[in-house]
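Revision sheet: structure tokens.
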Amino acid sequence: MKQVDLTVNDPSGLHARQATIFVNAAKRFESDIRIQHGDKEANGKSMTSLLKLGAESKAQIRIMVNGPDEDAALNALKSLMEMGQIEDEKPSGQDQPQTGQDLSKPAQYSGYVLHGIPAAPGIAIGPLFQFRRDQSVVPEMATNPSQEKGRLEKTIRAARAQLDTLHSRAKERIGDATAEIFIAQQTILDDPALMDATYVKINDGFSAARAWQITIETNAAQLAELEDELLAAREADVRDVGNRVLSLLMDSGNQRLVLPAHAVILAAGDLLPSDTVNLDVKQVLGICTATGAPTSHSAIIARELGITALVGIGPDVQEIATGTQVILDGEAGTLTVDPDPETLAAAIVLLRKRRRKRAPDKEVAVKPAITRDGHGIKVGANISRVRDAEQARANGADGIGLVRTEFLFLDRPDPPTEAEQMEAYRDIALALPDLPVTIRSLDVGGDKPLPYLQLPREENPFLGQRGIRLTLTQRDLLLTQIRAVLGAAAAGCVVRIMFPMITNLEEWRTVRTLIEEAQADLNAPMVELGIMIEVPAVALLAEAFAKEADFFSIGTNDLAQYTLAMDRTHPVLAEQVDGLHPAVLRLIDRTVRAAHTEGKRVGVCGELAADLLAIPILAGLGVDELSVNIPSIPEVKARIRSLTFSKAQQLSKQALECSTAPEVRKLVALI
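Predicted:
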């Protein structure tokens, strides 16, 4: 056996995401891995076991490894812990909620006022809606343990598939970093300690549902008792996973929120992360809960979505009748119930003032993004749903730079028809009349499977059949989508289409021939055809592709991982996959120069496009368009307006001469 004593360097302690990374790394080794903290000991391959250690920042822990690969395991885990802050619990660009800010004047509320903990800033005014989760009657005992275990294992597989889908959707709504919440939930779902404890209870005669329920309640309660607020807040994640499995076992569905047609302020005992990530920001003005913490994953998601939230109000909030007018102040930490006319009028005035202070002025947001010396850069939106298009326009989008069409293909037993797709593309285009809409062809594969394609499991789906590689083998699927896009163009929509994971000219020419044939068959106008630059081989041959494609869109997430040969979901390496690595920047530079030589435009639609440190470099390299998540549009435009193009060009030249990504980031930060 080998062991090492270490200090937890992460400022948040051994929290959910660091525990997820540690567990996933530990599972790569055969050896038994144990962690000691004080008088507690945990299974290093068990998420819930690690969290219950309650190891805060600067805590002393001992890693003990025993087995055939103990040396390699100990070295890897020691290096992982010594990296320090693996990932902050708050999402990128979102600070913890602040109170006492002098945005106009201190809020003054009279009448029946409940107090809670601010979790997401803002003021919301509207009718309250009470959400109460149905409680299913769980059968206590069962007579066939083997059958119950089989039911549980089948249900775990179904829950894992649901979390895969939820993670994909969450990335589109709240970004990769915050969506990792659902990767953490998958780790909880696969926790051997939970399964072992449940099997013991099934062997004692309990039904699978009751055994699972007892195990989840026990582990959630133990987490809730931890002194560290951040670790205790992970109780909701355990309950979220528990409820998902229990609902499937009881065949009671996912109990998704059903809201009235009008906008409301949502009240509940607590909201789970999977509840919150599915909220429609147009329907839900704010959230107020009896329990919860500002460090909970639901609160983090609410902040990312821009939904005002107040937590820890106490049980009184659940006694307010649905339909009651309320004022929710996510900064003052108050919920005013049935306010009098004077209080309501004052709150409306304060809401307007805070909006002017906090949110970018919409009139400014819709104006072009032009540098101080007159160089313009278009800023588009990445969207995943039809209804996102209107929000994109309201936030000042110059068009849609990326329509992730997977939303049309997920969660259904068969693929969408040509008519369904055409209607969706047309509706998106109609929300932004006369502005370009760039539709990405279906981008799925072994990492994003569809039930009706029966795809084989791949050891490394990122290097397998995905994107255009897959859809070229599914010609009917690809042709249906192409015809739908051309149909939208025939209806007068300004649409164009781009193809992911193009690797060689043969693929590109095959796709172009299919489109030309469909265009002739439909007698539809020809649309612009683009290539996603995600594979380094294409960037290196950009001169040849630029002669044949109408435009390029650089997917920096994949381009970085393929260039650096690092899986961006790897528990140890993911943080090193940085689009500002000089090798990636040189590929972007080559791509832009090749395109401009042929008079073609280049966009960037990966996460790098919204990185405020990256924007000056991308601008200096000559990128023509940036496509980002909707909430980032005003900020990205403001960043561009603050630049001088000539200086950005000088900066980009310096960045290309750097040796590492941290060196590039330091260079920009110093200016």
